[in-house]
Amino acid sequence: MHSRVISLKGQNLPGILPPEFVNLRFLRIIDLSRNYLSGTIPPQWGSMENLRNLSLIGNRLNGSIPKELGNITTLQSLTVEDNLMSGTIPEELGNLSSIDRLFFNSNFFTGELPASFAKLTTMREFRAGGNNFSGKIPDFIGQWRSLKTLRIQGGGFEGPIPSNITLLENLTDLRISDLRGPDTPCPPFSKTTLFTNLILRSCNLIGELPESLASSLKVLDFSFNKLNGSIPTGFSELSDTDNIYLTGNSLSGNVPEWMLSRGQNIDLSYNSFTYDNPSSCQPRETNLFASFLNDTISNKVSCLRGSDCQTNRTSLYINCGGDGLSMENYSYDSDLDSGGASRFFLNANQWGFSNTGHFLDDGNRDSYIVKNTSRLLMNNSELYMSARAAALSLTYYGFCLVKESYNVSLHFAEISFTDDDTYSSLGRRVFDIYIQGERVEEDFDISKQAGGVGKAIVKNYTVNVSNSLLIRLNWAGKGTTNIPFRGVYGPLISAISVNPNFYVPPKDGPLQGNGNGVSGGAVAGIVVGTICLIILILGGLWWYGYLKRRDTTEIELNGLELNTGSFTLRQIKTATNNFDIANKIGEGGFGPVYKGVLPDGTLIAVKQLSSKSKQGNREFLNELGVISALQHPHLVKLHGCCIEGNQLLLAYEYMENNSLARALFGPKKWQLELDWPTRYRICIGIAKGLAFLHEESRLKIVHRDIKATNVLLDKNLNAKISDFGLAKLDEEDNTHISTRVAGTYGYMAPEYALRGYLTDKADVYSYGIVLLEIVSGQANIPDRAKENHFVLLDRAIFLKNTGDLMELVDTKLDSKFDIQEMMVVINLALACTAISPTKRPAMSSVVSMLEGRIVPQECGVEQNRSMTEIDRDKMMKQLENINESQIEEMSIPYTNSSTSAVDLYPLDSFSDYLQNRTNDTNKLLS
């Protein structure tokens, strides 16, 4: 008798895979799924010439797939999902001529899919999600004509989605998500493809939705892309589709009536539809939260009308998925709504949540509340007995919060897996965490962070809130999906606590317990006495003159709406070791700059306003007011400020690699070797920061002083714009005539320097100059000017006209650059520095061209581009008349360390590089 089948599924078997199975020459099926096996796959198994099916799902197997398995030409199914395997997929697997099922998902595989896979034309099911693959989704998938199922959610691949996938007539289940790379058009699907599941989530798709899709669809998910246009009329055939997810796009037009009246589980949140007066955020089973154009324009969610803030809160406590309870003097609200696949819920206490997605393939009714049934050995265990779960995206909202800084604590404990030696303990729940739209945790694994299953982990964040707090948990296709059973994945959270990071009067504070406190009369007496004492002290200080000098600053400060944290002078002194001279890293226009360390280890750069400062309170407070309202990956982050006594201080993030100017053309000992990919990424980063200032932020801002010294580089050489002391809010008509011209020689747009005519196109001009500096590695204003024109820009124009643009390129690049990218940057630089501001592109268009979303037009050089002699004379006189306090000179020193903001990165006044440059205005021109 010959053994043909070994099937030991779900037995929790420990140990390793026995190489001796190779002696069972007639073995056809090995199924060891859902056990506790470890070790590697024996390469000896590659000689089992009769093997048809090898299933190892849900174990602890590690190492790589042996290339010897490619010898089993009879193999029809190879499934290793939900393990700990790594390495690249061997090229030899392309020899599996009979294979129709390959499952690699939920491991740690890397590299690209082998080109030899093009030969696997018998493939019917392919899964590769939840890995760390690289490269593009291969076109050869379009040759798998028998393919029915393709799942590569969170696989690490780059787009685009191959268009030939739409020609696979047998494909019914397509799931792709979280692609890297540039924006790409939506594939041309049609109703002839009989999909059951069509999921293209977070794939950087642009353009419009397909005109029509097959009515056979059960799940349609185009969420979190960049799609625009209206919902096609052909979508009416999807009225019987179980789930439609279009959240997180830019869709416009009217919401189809059928979606409001009879749609099931439809999520349209976060779009730009037009709808006059939505009576509810949740008509039937359609989620309309923040889905209308007016929600974006007015910064007010239209479907929440009638729920306006009666009072503003200073704290928030939610027991996610559980009953209300009191703990540590805080009262946690209950959160028992059953949830749903497209659900928005609003609590009477001015908080809510939005859930997107249902658990696929579980075969059961979805449950969005998880209950723990075992004993939890941890502090405050009641808080972790339940949790709210989501399949894709779960967002909690805290409405009506006082505009201030808060300490946000997110409480987690993994209660879905077991803590034993069974396959039920092998699950990995992995998701991302976003707060106020910024990702604060990537690939967050609860049990890994907590040190095991059933253990609590609390993540703490300091968050600036202007009105609403947004906490979003998002599944990006990582982790396991089948342990302990199908459909266990996605984010999970136990509780949320939000506490003020500022003083709150006792009546607005947390619950104080029951009844043994001080009486009301005593409290009143204490308060009155304290107030009187404070008045006497302040009166004495005023009499002796200690408070008089603060009047102007306090009046200016009261006019600001700040959206940042605050520090006491004592905290700043502790961080900088009492402003130790050893921590001084610069001397800028405002005053000295110090490096500091916060108690949590965060490095900061402290800018201090000096009484001898060339720039006064106005610029200092302007910078504080502007940058406190801005948060973007390519803007320097302001941690907080200190305004105490006669001290005015700003605390910025510390930027390890100083300024772009120092990196490119500072003293040699401080220059960095910036290769072309890094320079190109810096170009994109600056452009994105400016596009945000000009077009995307709530405040439309003209920076007015874009230059290489105001572009800072973090430890990863990511570019961030700094120094908002001269920034100006854009006017409604997008123009402004300024009687006070401010900026830097060599970077100011002609119309602004000559006539004070200010628009966001002045920043575009300055950006063009910076591009030329990045390309050439040279400063726009050289050490010694010889003629009356700006050297670098005019040299670029000359080389353009002579067809020798490559001579502009920095010789340090040693020809190691992409010529096409280089030409894009140079032509963009020339377009951005056009004499006429109307000829300059918008920064959003610049970003699109740099990222390859639109094809840049080659820039023709204007025939009369150079300024006339009259214009030159006007500009020279104008520049000569500008007060030194209005134009920041280039003769400030480089530092030998980094902080943040241009004043934090001065240029060494004794450097040969820029010594005495601005004493003679003729040195502005080459």
From TrEMBL:
The keyword Transferase applies. It holds the Pfam family Malectin. The lineage of its organism: Eukaryota, Viridiplantae, Streptophyta, Embryophyta, Tracheophyta. It comes from Tagetes erecta. SMART domains: S_TKc. One of its GO terms (cellular component) is plasma membrane. This is non-specific serine/threonine protein kinase. It is an enzyme of class 2 (transferase). CDD domains: STKc_IRAK.
